[in-house]
Amino acid sequence: MKFERMKQVTVWPNMTVLELVKQMNNGGFNCRKLSKAVSLWIEMIDDKNCTKFLGIAGALIPGGMRNIITSLIKEGFIDCIVTTGAQISHDILESFGGQHLHGEEGIPDKKLAEMDLSRIYTTLIPYNSFVRFEKMMQNILQKIPNQKMSTKEFIFHIGSQINDSNSFVRAAYENDVPIFSPSFADSILGVQSWLFSQTNTLSIDVLKDHTEFSDIVYNSKTMGAIILGGGVPKHFILNGSQLNNGLT
């Protein structure tokens, strides 16, 4: 086994982001890992036969990453998304005029409650943003077809009702990029959907997700994935890709 000697990362004035990332390949630890990840991403984009999956978990939208995801969809860099109900919920919340505010660590829960604020680590959300979400979401659910559908079809219908160019759910609808959310019930979107279903017909079949996702996998010549966070999106992509020899 032969080991390559490590070079030191060099920076210079006015270097581009790509030049910096290439330099990071000379370093070690996560520095080198990031550079290799970017190289794989470029390879995926250059491969016209590659189906590019994006897995989104964690608090990316409350963390300010919404426009980046939307841009990736609009630029044609993503072919299929698997995400949590929370990401979709916070995307829609922004579309309805809701706000994510900069907060800080250490604020007592009692103090936040007195200020009508909810928290996601250091991101704060006014309660009235959730109230508006609930009202607007119920209006959209009234327009959902009364049929059994996958989460992909469900989210597609939601995207068709959103009027916000910064929404990744809307961008996916406009660019025909499927979004799957097998665990969407574990979110405020799931709660609102359940409430609606108590007095209306609404049937979401998460097992149908597997059928529709496997169709995408079977029709893929090569496959690659960007997985941001773990959990359900990661497992769904990795398990589903095994139906066609896995990610390549």
Summarize this structure briefly:
By secondary structure, the protein is an alpha/beta fold. 48% of the residues lie in helices and 14% in strands.
Task: Summarize the structure in words.
There is one protein chain. It contains 11 helices and 9 strands. The protein has 248 residues and is of the alpha/beta class. It has a 4-stranded parallel sheet with strand order 7-2-1-9, sandwiched between helices. The chain has a 3-stranded antiparallel sheet with strand order 3-5-4. The protein is globular, with a radius of gyration of 20 Å. The mean pLDDT is 95.
Furnish the topology, listing elements before pairings:
Blueprint: H1 17-24, H2 29-46, E1 50-56, H3 66-74, E2 80-83, H4 85-95, E3 101-102, H5 109-114, E4 117-120, E5 123-126, H6 127-141, E6 148-149, H7 151-160, H8 168-174, E7 179-180, H9 188-197, E8 203-204, H10 206-218, E9 222-228, H11 231-241
Parallel strand pairs: 1-2, 1-9, 2-7, 6-8
Antiparallel strand pairs: 3-5, 4-5
